[in-house]
Amino acid sequence: MPTSSSAAPALYTVEEVAEKLRLQPETVRQMARDKRLPARKVGRVWRFVPEEVQAWLQSQPRSAEGAYVGASRVREAALRLPGLGESPEVNGSAFKDPAFSENRSLPVHRWVPWIAGFSAGFVQDCLREYLWRAEASQALVLDPFAGVGTTLVEAYRAGFNTVGFEINPYAVLAARAKLAAGEVSVPMLEAWTRIFNVFMEDNVARELPRQNGTSPPGFRSRIPFFSPQVEQQVSWALRFIRNTGDPELRDFFLIAFGSVMVKFSNYTYEPSLASRPGCGKPLVEIADVTGTMVGKLREMIEDCRRFQRGTQRSAYALRRDVFQDSFFNAERHLPPGCVDLAITSPPYLNNYHYIRNTRPQLFWLQFVERAADLQKIEQASFGRFWQTVRDGQRLDLEFQLPELEVILDQLRQTNLHRGVYGGPGWANYAAQYFNDAYRFCGVMARLLKPGGRTVVVIGNSILQGIEIKVEEFLAEIAEQHGLKREDVHMLRTKRVGNSIIRSSVRNAAKDRVSLYEVAVVLQKPPHTLA
After folding, report:
1. How wide is the angle at C-alpha 377 spanned by C-alphas 118 and 358, nearest 5°?
2. Measured between alpha carbons, how far is residue 403 from residues 356, 397, 427, 434 in Å?
3. Is 145 helix (H, G, I), strand (E, B) or coil?
4. Peptide bond preceding 271: is omega within 30 degrees of 0, i.e. cis?
5. How many Cβ atoms from other residues are within 10 Å of residue 89's Cβ?
6. CA angle at residue 142 from 104 to 358, to 5 degrees?
């Protein structure tokens, strides 16, 4: 923090205010530009006087309970800056921007790049909002679509029992490794990192015998995934990892490799996996695989050290499970009425192919051996994917929701000349998606304790130019299972576009629709039998 002097008050930067408010820096800049937050322009940058911000906060209207009114986190929580006194308890219902990109700079969360999900700060907000009365060691936090473990890690750090379900084995590996960060032997991990470095220095120049090569036989790519010089290093690195005797340490090395492997490959995330030449980027002919991996391992080591310093020893006795299974099978693992809070973000109705975008990790880390293995995971995915249902027989809703049925019928009549690439194929995809949403709500209703809640981050969708308000239909489906729609919070507007999936020419500007994300809060009535 800057130090104050006798000549001028201490001024804080955008980044410092953003950190204290748990907002994105760009959000703070925009509030300053809009004059919604007291700020001063110093040269080309914004600076903030703590006393001015505190005075502004105190001037905002409050509810009868003393909470700041409004949807903005800034109006709900006082700045926790030195010299500003105690902050009022956060009683409001606003949440932090859920964007997972914030996690890229947070210890432990930054280990694995992940396109889907939400931020650690968003999970913290939910825990404070809905479990502030709960005895943490007796409460259970669930993530039905756990991804790489953001909800699980934050629940664990806050002292709650936590359970997650995830069908992608690479994501399961990442989530389990993160949850092990509190107990892994840091000295042992440091020692094995040094051993790995020496091993690679001694062997990287040697060519592995052809029969010992590690290129997965079932993996296919349009161009070589690794250039020859890079693949030779990769082969030695994977040989070392697979010969590591300690399963926990081996998992940490696998995550280190999986998280950086695309960096030295001939592919890139844009955000979907694509070849570098196809994105106007050069091939990676030469790369320092050893240095990249060691750098990642050292980052993970430091994060484990910090995690262990900040986690109470009593937390290690808590339950923290990640099941490599579909949430639809959750009742095989959990009893009815056991969940206090679920925080999750299911796949959106946008056909982003989460499985195919982790194909490199799944094959090179030997989670799958052939395309048929991938197809099994795809078939178990929530909503499946357009590619898996477009050619099949017509799919209809397995429950009654007339307004949604009208939209699906409209979609089926769109772009008929395109066959499965037109409306009929997309209507099948949407029907499968909402049928799975119906199953999800049914399982969730049975697992929640009376009074328990589910916070679902979801977005609207545009298929063939037709907007589908997914959050509205999800809430109506939940109500059919006895859950109450407690609230719907607008989180952010992502962009304005014509269609995520559009086969005809662009619409006129008047037809544009904003894509947005919301948090749907569902509650099981307090006096309902589990």
Report:
1. 55
2. 33, 12, 14, 13
3. coil
4. yes
5. 13
6. 45
Q: What is the DSSP letter of 118?
A: B
Domain boundaries along the sequence of the chain: 1-94, 100-168+319-356+381-523, 186-310
Per DSSP, the residues of 58-106 read HHS-B-TTSPBPSS-GGGTS----TTS-PPPP--S------BGGGGGGS
- Hey, what are 513's tokens? 């629709």
Structure tokens belonging to residue 399:
């429950």
Dump pLDDT digits (tens) for 297-309: 999 999 999 999 8
Q: In Å, what is the CA distance from 169 to each residue of 16, 132, 243, 500?
A: 37, 33, 20, 28
- 100-168+319-356+381-523: CATH topology is Rossmann fold (3.40.50)
Strand partners, 140: 161
Instruction: Please check whether residue 91 is in contact with residue 67, taking contact to mean a CB–CB distance below 8 angstroms.
Output: yes
| Residue appearing with tokens 């410092």 | 16
Residue 64 has pLDDT above 70, yes or no: no
Q: How many residues does the chain have?
A: 530
Instruction: Give the Cβ contact number of residue 101 at 10 Å.
Output: 13
How does the average pLDDT of the chain come out, rounded? 83
Compute φ and ψ for 428, nearest 5 degrees: -60, -45
Count CB neighbours of 523 within 10 A: 19
- Find where tokens 């008047």 sit: 510
pLDDT in tens, 157-178: 999 999 999 999 999 999 999 9
- CB of 99 closer than 8 Å to CB of 119: yes
Asked whether residue 83 carries a pLDDT value surpassing 60, the answer given is no
d(CA 520, CA 346): 12
Q: Is 236 helix (H, G, I), strand (E, B) or coil?
A: helix
Q: What amino acid is encoded at 503 in this protein? A: S
- Angstrom CA distances, 217 to 230, 255, 291, 363, 369, stand at 18, 21, 27, 9, 7
- The HSE-up count of residue 338 (CA atoms within 13 Å, CB side) is 13
